[in-house]
Amino acid sequence: IRQSPDGRFIVATGTYAPRLRCYEMSDFGMKFERFLDSESIDFQFLGQDYGKLALLCDDRYIRFHAPYGHHTEMRIPTFGRAMGYESATCNLLIPACNGAIYRLDLEEGRFNTPLIPHADFEVSIRAHNSQYGGSCIAVSPTHQLTSVGCEDGMVRFWDNRSGTAPFVNLNVGSAVSNYGYAESEDVQFGNNSKAYEVTSLAYDLSGVHMAIGTRGGCVALYDMRSSKPLYVKEHQYGLPIHTVRFHHGSDLVLSSDARLIKIWRAKSSSISGINTNETENGATSVAAGAMGSIVTNIEGKGDF
């Protein structure tokens, strides 16, 4: 589910049968529905509204939709896992299971040289379980910095002016190694474990702060000027964090797994620690700490 940049439309994709639905916020109703040839893994708005959409599908096709419907499609060399859009260069960025990040230039209509996890990496379309495989991608809205979360617990950063190799790596796995509630056999980082795999990324509107979710159920909040997290939030279920978002204007972070949504403060308040005050009637009131949170449990048979 994504909201258009102008805030007027919400587009959602689903399965069985694969389809796309667009809702208009002014009418609180569905504007149109389109059926797809295959399941959509991710999609991006290429404009301010639903007029230009790019959908990454599980049959290795990227399908482009216009207001009148399906426009064209292109096939990528191997299966993609997520998709980001860099508006400054009109590039679609697709992290793949083989460790490469394919770049599709929409202005020229061709593939550029793919981004690679390190300088000596060789792109192979036959590798499907690379430890460098990207799980999620985020592009900063301020400085167009591309970040990809990988299976080895690293977040790699690219600048479109600095070549195809990342100019800096952030080791999130080591930062959250003492946190989380994953099963004991899943927390052996480095022994083919994916407990610290990065599963979600998000920048705030200023591009200074970044939230990173892991498969083990932790969310690390970073200042882009430091390699140490400002705070690590535990979801306490050991389930993968599939979504992290910043709520602009209120300094809140929203993080969710299959069971709950946590809403917590991204910046420290004037209150430090937890203060207890006794009132006139003898009751004790507790003031929230610097990183308070609201927890919402999602009950139901299906995953949220």
Can you describe this structure?
- This protein has a four-stranded antiparallel β-sheet with strand order 1-2-3-4, with no helix packed on it.
- 1% of the residues lie in helices and 44% in strands.
- It is mostly beta strands.
Pick out its properties.
mainly beta, four-stranded antiparallel beta sheet, 26 strands, 304 residues, 1 helix
Give the SSE layout.
Layout: E1 2-3, E2 9-14, E3 19-24, E4 29-35, E5 40-45, E6 53-57, E7 61-66, E8 69-75, E9 84-86, E10 91-95, E11 101-105, E12 110-115, E13 134-139, E14 146-150, E15 154-158, E16 168-171, H1 172-175, E17 198-203, E18 209-214, E19 218-223, E20 231-234, E21 243-247, E22 252-256, E23 260-265, E24 275-278, E25 284-287, E26 293-297
Antiparallel strand pairs: 1-2, 2-3, 3-4, 5-6, 6-7, 7-8, 9-10, 10-11, 11-12, 13-14, 14-15, 15-16, 17-18, 18-19, 19-20, 21-22, 22-23, 23-26, 24-25
